Amino acid sequence: MKPGRLACALAALALLVPACTAPTPAPPVAPTPAPPAPAPGAERGTPGWEITHPGPEHGIEGYADRTSALPGDTVRLFVSTTAARFTVTAFRMGAYAGSDALRVWQSAPVPGRVQAPAVVQAPTSTVVAPWQPSLEVPTGGWAPGDYLLRLDGDNQAQQYVPLTVRTPFNACRIVLVNALTTWQAYNRWGGYSLYDSPSGRKPQRSRAVSFDRPYQARDMRAAGDFLFFELPMARFAESLGLPLGYTTDVDLHADPHLLDGARAMITLGHDEYWSSAMRANVSAARDRGVNLAFLGGNEIYRHIRFAPSATGPDRVEIDYKSFGEDPARLTDPLEATPEWRSPPYPRPESVLLGNFYQCNPVHADLVAAAEQNWLLAGIVHTGQHLRGLVGDEYERVDLAVPTPRPIDVLFHSPVTCGGKPDFADTTYYTTSSGAAVFSAGTQYWICGLDPGCPQSGGDAAAGAAIRAITERLLRAYAAGPTGAAHPAADNLAALGIH
Fold it and tell me: Labelling 480: which of 86, 121, 348, 471 has CA 20 to 30 A away?
């Protein structure tokens, strides 16, 4: 047995739980070990978790006082509703028999009330919901994972409040990261987001957005991007029975030790907004041998920083999308918020990803380019098309920016975006630490894990290939640093990439 595997096994035996202890010094009072997630498919899920009656706008909506919780934490919910009474039902989302969800808790009926209207804070046009707490949700006994708290009013209105119950320690785990900063950037509750304003004029958009507000009901039933860009991966990864950790990008920002001892970190389908600490912590983990996988097509593009709100730390996400406009240029210029690739301090995302964001929207086939690569061998052949799985945003290898070498291009897919022909590239590179880095280069990779993927038209061959490649990747990643066993073999010249 390799030394890293032996250490994990010994730690697991010592704890008599399937997690490992963290390699960092223990805190004064050790937290209670989290209950393990159920074996995949062993527990029957709960049907009827879906929202069937979203109701009128503002019929019921809410937010939590934290983006993630440790098992046993108490979470406060802030709810506004026209209903006289409502209940909250907590569903853990994942690989259950007969359903994507398991009901773990339900509140007693709670008196409803219409809370104060949204407040728009100058000068950043930051929308907050200045509400009073409605109830507390206990999480004792909850397994780590992705949760949806469903609000059900007696006015027939329903909405979700997403919550991640994070893994206390991630040693020896594949860590799935919910991209909350991207969810919040696009959240238009109260009329403003980092893109839009009530007038429709983008120059009047927010420069900072707050987690102290609900997600807009039209945005995936107030569940951010979770249902489309993240749930299929969580469900698939759990179905393999591998040791998983759960966290959010806000936690990745706050805790430089979050990935200590982890086997791998996986970001999901739309993970665009990154802080300096997020990027530094992930880069350091890679350089310690932690494998990485980026399963979207527009990661590490927007540079953000955080500020506290009245509710707690890291509740305000700041992005001016401009160096010249951001007041931080005068006090801490490296924390000003143009795109990561933009001057005066360009730090292209390709340094970490391998590929480089290009354009949107596109919709094209994935085209295999390296059947000899260990991830593709025996699954697809060079030139094979996987229907409809490039889009909506994509990345390619661009040697005009810093690019790790050696690097394999696994899929080299012709696209046309903005009237210009181009290629979308799925890439794989390895590092001297032994870490492997996979970047899908398309937002629809995770859709391919869903047998009913609308982007592929449910194409069975495409779905089978994506599931087989992803399973091979995750199983290799679970064994530890993958680069030693599967080093990258640069194929750029053979593809005409110069």
Answer: 348
